[in-house]
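Hi U.,

Before I forget, here's the chain from the pilot set. I'm dumping it here mostly so it's searchable later in email.
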Amino acid sequence: MEYLGTLGGIAGVFLLACLSPGPVWVVITSTSIAVSRRAGILTGLGVAGATLTWATLAMLGLGLLAQLAWLTVVIKLAGAAYLVWIGCRMILGASRPAPATGSMPSTQYGGWIALRRGYLSSITNPKAAAFFGSIFVVMLPAHAPGWVYAATVALLAVLSAGWHCGLAVVFSVAPIQAGYRKAKAKIDTLVGVVLIALGVRLAVSR
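Structure:
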């Protein structure tokens, strides 16, 4: 079919973007290592939910997000604040003993919290807004049938879920978790500092 090449191209560009480490990587890997594989996977599903949201908004707006400068600023500041907040929490909790896998009470890190954390880490990322606000304009034909837009949104959501949940699984294996427990204080402090730095950099960037 004539639009399969377009879908493949969009999928390829999206996967290349996923390979670039950023706040989402930090949130998923730290959750998988410090909490459990289940929490990491749920965080990855939260990121996939944000991908679905951004792709849908971009499909409906087709570049409208890129034209709303004030919305870009709001998203950027919200994302910066969220990254700083997560970073501060990790630093403050760095000295606490690492819990055994799956031992953290659901009231402290339940499924909803993991989903929300993943969703917010991605939905407040202005890079995602710029990516989805431009990829549809550049790569989708102007008069493509409706099924092409729907298929693109579904494809990106599935790819996002597969990639980010896979990332969670990799970083939840026993050797990596054992290494984390031995160096928890240093790792959590370093990750927290990185998140705060990313947040500050995001806030002052143009």
